[in-house]
Amino acid sequence: MALSDKVALVTGAAQGIGKAFSAALLRQGCKVVILDMNAVAGEACKNDLDTEFDSANSLFIACDVGSEEQLKCAFKKQLNHFGSLDILCNNAGINNENNWEQTINVNLTSVIRGTYLALDYMSKQNGGKGGIIVNIASLAGIYPAPHGPVYTATKHGVVGFSRAIAATSKLAGYGVRINTICPAFVDTPLLSSVNSKEMMGNYYIFKDTVQKLIDFYGILDPSLIVQGLMKIIQEEDLNGAVMRITKTKGIHFETYESALIQPELK
């Protein structure tokens, strides 16, 4: 996909991976909608980006993706502002085992809802012109993380949902590619949550074990996740792919056994 003048929406975009995604997409000529519930960080992110890129090419919308009303409103605002949607990056996520309902709502429910909202605009079945959806999961979406069982469940859910809806898109002719990125530990504010007893609850006892894992596997810079995003956007044969990104192997893909026989639409 040629990115010049394409419109991208990135959730959880004020910091970390989301901010890096936004900058990379602007650098490629996209118009970018920055969604984040942290209004202060979001405005600061927008101001930072405006020092390098044309301020007219980005829009910050304060939005709690866990709120159905706010997320729907944000999609309407971006459509009214830029007129279209070509790329969605469902990046927002939290790690809060103590408030596990919120973790499910932000990490999984908002990804499903965001994907469906994007399909409403993008799907060729609805008169759209197609597009790309990239859902950010984690290696915890492939392997169990004993220090974060609910976080693990949400990321497994993101992977499973993304693979399934990608197959749906292909079978039904939506014209939308849907893929998943599963990074290992990344240098973002989310990483510090394992040291918060308030967030981790009973699993706070594993903080030293998690630190040993981090020390062993290393910490990824968000720039490598950006490379993964760009690979997914540019390689038009990728649909339903699960990209893994680790310090030792870099960008590579999870392999699965052959899919079940798929029904034919008539």
Explained architecture:
There is one protein chain. The protein is built from eight helices and eight strands; from the N terminus they run βαβαβαβαβαβαααββ. The mean pLDDT is 94. It has 266 residues and is an alpha/beta fold. The chain has one domain: Rossmann fold, CATH 3.40.50.720.
In short:
The chain has helices spanning 16-27, 39-50, 68-82, 100-122, 149-172, 197-200, 207-217, 222-234, and strands spanning 7-11, 31-36, 58-62, 87-90, 131-136, 176-183, 242-246, 250-253. By secondary structure, it is of the alpha/beta class. The model has no long low-confidence stretch (mean pLDDT 94).
Characteristics:
single chain; about 270 residues; alpha/beta; Rossmann fold; 8-stranded mixed β-sheet
CATH architecture: 3-Layer(aba) Sandwich
Helix and strand succession?
EHEHEHEHEHEHHHEE
- Give the CATH class: Alpha Beta
| Secondary structure: number of strands | 8
| Structural class by sheet pairing and helices | alpha/beta
Going across the major beta sheet, what is the strand order?
Answer: 3-2-1-4-5-6-7-8
Question: What would the CATH topology be?
Answer: Rossmann fold
